[in-house]
Amino acid sequence: MINNYEILQFMNKNKQYKGYQVAQTDSKQVPGASHLLFKAGVDRFLFVRIIEPTRDTPTTDKILAIEELASYKFSEFETVKYDQFSLSQRYTFTRPNGEQLIVKTWVSSATLRSALPDKVKLIVVDRKWYNRIVGFRSKDPLHMVIATAVYAAIIFLYFKYFF
What sections of the protein cross the membrane (predicted)? Predict the structure, then answer.
């Protein structure tokens, strides 16, 4: 598994991607995309797939290439709704005609928020701290009870094992 630091090293060797930041992503609207590339001051972000060598490939490189799957401009969108969870962020980009692009990124040193231009309106979803925890985000009582039971079992097993 390649980490973001290795991808950044590869990108800095290629002029095309030099200075871009990388974040792991999951967007149902761009199948096959594993990472998101963006750069502050540049009016585009890219959904890419990292091509790794196979076992049969005679190379020591961890990355063979970066395949661009989709490219979007920030200026295409009117608003961005930013929702922070415990380990991930969800960005909902909305065009003036109402079409949406939903992007989910995971914890990384890079945040897409820093690359958004000023003319795109940012809407930050404000949640209470406990609504960011898995099992409590949906506010569904059944999910909350199950999550509480799982968390209690984990804590019980932790104390039983270590004490």
Answer: 142-161
Give me Rg for the CA atoms of the chain.
19
Q: What long-range pairs does 34-40 form, CB within 8 A, spacing at least 24?
A: 35/7, 36/103, 36/105, 36/112, 37/11, 37/66, 38/110, 38/112, 38/115, 39/115, 40/114, 40/115
CB 75 within 8 A of CB 43: yes
Question: What is the CB neighbour count within 10 angstroms for residue 81?
Answer: 16
Region 99-113 average pLDDT: 80
- From residue 58, alpha-carbon distances to 64, 77, 79, 132 in Å are 11, 44, 46, 45
Residue 62: Cβ-neighbour burial (10 angstroms; 0-12, 13-18, 19+) = middle
Tens of pLDDT, residue by residue over 31-59, are: 999 999 998 889 999 999 998 888 777 77
Q: What is the pLDDT of residue 68?
A: 94
Two tokens at 29? 């609207």
Distance CA 93, CA 72 (A): 10
Average pLDDT, integer, range 79-86: 86
